[in-house]
Amino acid sequence: MIFFKNIDEKKPFARIEDLYKEALIAKQRNIEAICISSYSKKNGVNSRFVNLKIVDDDKFFFFTNYESEKAYEFNENNQISAVLYWNQTNTQIRMKSHIIKTSNEFNQNYFMKRTKEKNALAISSKQSKKIDSFQSVKKNFFDVMQSDDLTICPEYWGGYCFSPFYIEFWTGDKYRLNRREVFELCEGKWKKYFLQP
Ligand SMILES: Cc1cc2nc3c(=O)[nH]c(=O)nc-3n(C[C@H](O)[C@H](O)[C@H](O)COP(=O)(O)O)c2cc1C
After folding, report:
1. Whose CA is nearest to atom 12 of ligand 1?
2. For 93-139, what is each residue's pLDDT tens digit?
3. Which domains does the chain have, with CATH numbers?
4. Is 83 helix (H, G, I), strand (E, B) or coil?
């Protein structure tokens, strides 16, 4: 589930919430999955899915390891693109944005509300670092599961937040008469135009 709050009807984020609700009713699986692309000189362009957890007004939030490859890339170049696709409704939402880390306080509050299994994995995994065997990954996880307190968020785990300045809604239709509607933030105002399919 993606948690929407403080959505302004006059901004394109209201459309995202409406499309999300449609996809939810259509029983979209992995509805939180959002593809985030980043860039660094070392890795070139790099994409991966994460789970989009919160949309608060114009801010989108997901959570990850601050020492992962993506974190390294965001640090070098804070521009990202993000894509949602819900196949049950044949809807794609493409976004461009800059990305920032969330605060320690925000991360700690969020971490405390998660399951101990999720937190044990977040604590035990040095995400994206090489390891000799998958067995070692499992051992690290089950060792951490023995800890008394799995509610303390480590410094290397937390959220990222992005506020898109470009949003394209793509809705598939018959004869490939697909509707492409763009909202672009220009000097604080959302400009709307269409693109040919
Ligand atoms: C549907 C889906 C959701 C995922 N959600 C997350 C997530 O919320 N946070 C995360 O760190 N990794 C998530 N992953 C794993 C990432 O795709 C990726 O393997 C991991 O973050 C390491 O990426 P990096 O090496 O580019 O940093 C998810 C994978 C899939 C397929």
Report:
1. 50
2. 999 999 999 999 999 999 999 999 999 999 999 999 999 999 999 99
3. 3-114+155-195 (2.30.110.10)
4. strand
